[in-house]
């Protein structure tokens, strides 16, 4: 998605070989028009996938997911993220390990919101090692629903998330794929 | 806003005289079309207010704020919420006391994202005692910017948030104002 790549080049800050900061349009400040274009791009890629619901994780996934939901005409669920969670019967809960923060957290979705007939599109802002997307996919499996696909705004393609998700058989669509952040430069795939 | 009131009556769950749960369209699952209508309603009420930025608090404020930002053509900042925060020079930070959770948390916005020329529309999902909105307003003041107004999706008008905000001189626009949740029923003002 050219508009997104342009924005990353112009406003992204390469903090290290591993970390790209996009606080000015995605992760802290949000560019609503760009989010609308991102929503349309996801909708175009998954329009024939029979999507009935979108699941994302708070907070940075919400804006792109809601715009995709608007385009596809389906509800969006944001999984709640917490450090520790008292076990609650009415929630599907999965652990997510963050390599960036070096801590384990839990994400949860109310059982009432997913049913076996759902075909769920998972959306997230970043794909790195795939831990967050895999946790969302396990929640969908817990509900005996199906993963219709995985939509990623920015993929760090030099990490192994994409291959882990494809090994599981999921269709992964990333709107910007970054080959490298070396020497402070963003190099895209394609 | 009639569409919103209808949704509250049909899908809201009154948990007590004080607590209304709207997890099916705002606080956990999100209805994107309703959010678009909410965004348009906020834009209509603040179109002449010279808004340059919107500030909300993660996570439930993000969807309505992004839709309002799309309509008004301005960026949206979501303040980060944390339990404890190591003091960071590059952040404006304010404390918020939650009467529901009986705990104090902090919200923060990167200094880089607000400047004295900004006229900031504050948006939040709920207004109860006004603590969250007041914390956002103090962040705007820290940046020597101005509050253009406050947009609330659902106001619990039987609590004192609205009068606290109006005492400070802010224009408060709530799309649904709840007079009472007594006996399990939602009673609106107007």
Describe this structure in words.
Two copies of one chain form a homodimer. Chain A contains five helices and eleven strands, in the order αβββαβαββββαβαββ. With 190 residues, chain A is an alpha/beta fold. Chain A has a single domain, classed as Rossmann fold, CATH 3.40.50.2020. The first copy, chain A, has an eight-stranded mixed sheet with strand order 6-7-5-4-8-9-10-11, sandwiched between helices. The radius of gyration of chain A is 16 Å and the shape is globular. In chain A, 45% of the residues are buried. The model of chain A has no long low-confidence stretch (mean pLDDT 95). Chains A and B meet through β3, α2, α3 and β5 of A and β3, α2, α3 and β5 of B. Chains A, B: It catalyses: XMP + diphosphate = xanthine + 5-phospho-alpha-D-ribose 1-diphosphate. Chains A, B: GO terms for molecular function: xanthine phosphoribosyltransferase activity.
């Amino acid at each position: 998605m050219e508009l997104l790549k342009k924005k990353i080049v112009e406003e992204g800050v390469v903090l290290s070989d591993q970390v790209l900061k996009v606080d000015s349009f995605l992760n802290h400040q949000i560019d609503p028009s760009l989010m609308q274009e991102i929503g349309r791009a996801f909708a175009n890629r998954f329009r024939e996938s029979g999507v009935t619901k979108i699941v994302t994780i708070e907070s940075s996934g919400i804006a792109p997911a809601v715009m995709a939901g608007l385009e596809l005409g389906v509800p969006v669920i944001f999984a709640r993220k917490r450090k520790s969670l008292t076990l609650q019967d009415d929630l599907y809960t999965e652990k997510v390990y963050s390599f960036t923060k070096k801590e384990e957290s839990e994400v949860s979705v109310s059982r009432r919101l997913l049913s076996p007939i759902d075909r769920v599109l998972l959306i997230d802002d970043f794909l790195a090692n795939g831990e967050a997307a895999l946790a969302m996919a396990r929640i969908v499996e817990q509900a005996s629903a199906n993963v219709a696909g995985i939509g990623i705004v920015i993929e760090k393609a030099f990490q192994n998330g994409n291959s882990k998700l494809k090994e599981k058989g999921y269709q992964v669509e990333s709107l910007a794929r970054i080959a490298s952040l070396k020497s402070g430069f963003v190099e895209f795939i394609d």
